[in-house]
Amino acid sequence: MNSLVSANNRVLSGMRPTGRLHLGHYHGVLKNWVEMQHEYDCFFFVADWHALTTHYEVPDVIGKSVWELVIDWLAAGVNPGAATVFIQSRIPEHAELHLLLSMITPLGWLERVPSFKDQQEKLRGKDLSTYGFLGYPLLQGADILAYRAGWVPVGEDQVAHVELTREIARRFNFLYGREPDFEGRVKVAIKKMGKKNARLFHDLRTKYQEQGDKEALEVARELLKGQQNITIADQERLFGYVEGGGKMILPEPQPLLTSASKMPGLDGLKMSKSYNNTISLRDTEDEVEQKIRTMPTDPARVKRTDPGDPTKCPVWQWHLVYSADDLQKQIQEGCRSAAIGCIDCKSHITRAIREELSPIQERAQLYEESPDLVRNIINEGSEKARDEARKTMDEVNHAMGLSY
Ligand code: TRP
Ligand code: SF4
To answer: Which amino acid residue places its CA nearest to atom 1 of ligand 1?
Structure first.
């Protein structure tokens, strides 16, 4: 049985297979995954169905990118011994849950998700007035809830999707979490906590329900976790009771905002494929060298002897990512006094990137040469993911009256 407690330690995240990964993905997402995999129960998946919601006209791009993506993850240090790595479309439970949740999802909730209008406007060349595109944040919700993940590492732009997922989980629990004599069981369980805790528990519930105090909800969660006298099923019941629903079948996930620095692009804007300012994880040494060489610098430094200002130079942004404090200091002084030239200044960056990419590229090559190994990793991960998702679906089907 899944529980409040184990749900909290589970992390789920996905990426769309729409092209090669670059340093922005590495610093913004992948490094974070690699760190988390030893602390959390991590599930990482290739979101191929998500890619189809916007790229349905070019399925061959997706097919090709799936394996490249998995290899990039493995090369960057995602360890299949520590994390479960799989492909979304191998787990039909995502689609099953998406369908079932669609029954209870008000249209307005989907239409109000900010990315719905944003993306439609941004990707004007594509016809995105499709059913699949509207429902894509719900599909993301199904991805998360199928594993009852407690944490979802996402960027700023995806927080609204996690919020939607929370609302849907709450609605689901409210609609289907009522078991016969729910209130009676709750009463008995509260008694077992002892008078003092019971009073605290009631107070926290009131604070959350009447004032929407989210901290009270968290404190209640902690309080329940610490109760030795009550069963896990009772903990879930009581947590559902605090939230105002019935028994909690689908736990509400939390977004885990990555504090990692936004990787600057070659032009100083955020690194992104659509700005054409990226360095790919598979760029060769020559490509990296050439891209850094042609990066713009402080325009005041026309001649080698002109002093510059690092704050006006995108190269400096990269020193903030790659250089130690003493080198940063040296660059600051050298640039402002014209003691160093831009070519020198850039050479540190070229070297740092080469050092970062070369072990990644070596590992990538090993995986490129052993497609069977990569397939096995995905087969195993998908099998494990499917077992987990099936457990949730059995409960969801049962709760929705579909267990004949
Ligand atoms: N929507 C995410 C993106 O476009 C990818 C994604 C799909 C995802 N399902 C997810 C991320 C579940 C986190 C959790 O980047
Ligand atoms: Fe930019 Fe470095 Fe040149 Fe200064 S010395 S302008 S920081 S590249």
So the answer is: 140
Encoded tokens for 234: 């009772």
- Residue 220 Cα to ligand 2 midpoint, Å, equals 53
257 Cα–ligand 1 center, Å: 13
Residue numbers of the domain that contains 363: 283-368
Q: What was the pLDDT predicted at 187?
A: 93
Q: How far apart are CA 86 and CA 382, in angstroms?
A: 5
Residue nearest to atom 7 of ligand 2 (CA): 310
The domain total for the chain is 3
Does residue 75 sit in the same domain as residue 151? yes
Q: Is the dihedral of CA 226, 231, 232, 236 positive or negative?
A: negative
pLDDT confidence band for 259 (50 / 70 / 90): low
The residue out of 213, 243, 273 marking a domain boundary is 243
Testing ligand 2's pocket by substitution, the residue of 291, 292, 301 carrying the most ligand atoms inside 8 A of its CB is 301
pTM of the model: 0.85
Residues 338, 301 within the same domain: yes
Co-location of 152 and 193 in the same domain: no
Same domain for 55 and 125: yes
| pLDDT tens by residue, 106-157 | 999 999 998 888 888 887 778 888 999 999 999 999 999 999 999 999 888 8
Atom of ligand 1 nearest to the CA of 161: 1
Contacts of 245 (CB under 8 A, 6+ apart): 170, 173, 174, 177, 178
